[in-house]
Amino acid sequence: ITDTTAFTKVTDARYMFQNCTSLISIDTSGFTSVTVAYSMFYSCTSLISIDTSGFKNVTVACGMFNNCRSLASIDTSAFTNVTNASQMFSYCSKLASIDTAAFTNVTDASYMFYGCTKLASIDTAAFTSVTTAYYMFNSCTSLASIDTAAFMNVTNAGYMFCYCTSLASINMTAFTKVTNASYMFYGCTKL
Question: Among residues 57, 110, 149, 179, which one has the fewest Cβ atoms lying within 10 Å of its Cβ?
């Protein structure tokens, strides 16, 4: 798909390209009005790169790139209005690093990086608005360390670091508002 310029009036793009397993790249310049990108590229397993600059109005990015297993890097700078980032990068198993600076308005980060097995480090400073971090880093098996200072508003931390098998230490002083800590560090065999 090379030309999406006709879609300038689209606001709801949920499931638009779900399971387009042969999609390698896409011109997203027409999607400047999109606010709901729920599962927009879900299971686009061949997607290698994507220009995200048009997504500056997206607020709901739940599952947007879920299971994009070929996506090794992504420019996230346009996502400043996203509040729901649940499952946004779940199972992006080639994603080794990501710039999270734009995610200052995210409140729901549940499953956001679930199964990102190559993610070795992440800057979490922007996540000060997050209240729901359920499964946020679950099964990030390469994550060796993480700064948790920004998570002072998290209430739901269930399964947050479950099966982070490379995580050797963690500072928990920021988690004063947590009410659900079920399975929070379950399977963290190096802790």
Answer: 179
